[in-house]
Specification:
Structural class: alpha+beta
CATH architecture of the domain at 36-148: Roll
Radius of gyration: 21 Å
Strand content: 15-25%
CATH class of the domain at 36-148: Alpha Beta
Mean pLDDT: 74
Number of strands: 7
Shape: globular
Oligomer: single chain
CATH topology of the domain at 36-148: Ubiquitin-like (UB roll)
Low-confidence stretches: 1-48
Length: 163
């Protein structure tokens, strides 16, 4: 009788550990360019990249195998995310990308993250997420290095396919 109670505990422990592993949980710290906490920090100008006078926005370009590049662009009138990508040169450097706009609310407080979608076929921001960009916004462009096979497996496996 004691053996069956003990084995039940170990069965549950093994199943729980296996479930966490398949759900993408890890006991090791994950670091990399896609660290969300670094997105919410205030950016500091890199050496030789002074902040332009007047209202501006910052574009952060994160390419695989390259150092992160910050581009500060003066804000001029009605600007949308597609215009920002073209002005920063991100569309020439990156084919597939993840896009985020980090915006501090006018009343202050923590930055809000707006996720935008990039249409690889049309090579432009999807119209429903082509957000207006305001002075002080921080646009994050991350190169998407996933392959078509990765995308297929992710759709097929759902949450089990993510690390």
């Amino acid at each position: 009788m004691m053996i069956s109670q003990g084995s039940g505990f170990w069965t549950i422990a093994v199943l729980a550990t296996t479930g966490l592993a398949f759900a993408g949980c890890s006991t090791t710290a994950q670091t990399g360019d896609a660290n969300p906490t670094s997105w919410l920090a205030n950016e500091t100008p890199a050496a030789g990249n002074e902040i332009p006078p007047g209202p501006h926005y910052t574009v952060e370009i994160r390419r695989a195998g390259h150092t992160t590049q910050f581009v500060r662009i003066p804000h001029a009138g009605d600007t949308h995310l597609q215009n920002v990508l073209e002005k920063s040169g991100a569309t020439k450097k990156i084919r597939k990308m993840e896009l985020y706009v980090l915006r501090t609310p006018p009343q202050g407080g923590p930055r809000q993250r707006l996720t935008a979608m990039y249409d690889v076929g049309d090579r432009r921001v999807a119209w429903e997420s082509d957000y207006a960009v305001y002075p002080g916004d921080h646009v994050v462009v991350i190169e998407d290095t996933s392959t078509d096979f990765d995308n297929l497996m992710s759709k097929f496996l759902g949450p089990l396919g993510h690390n």
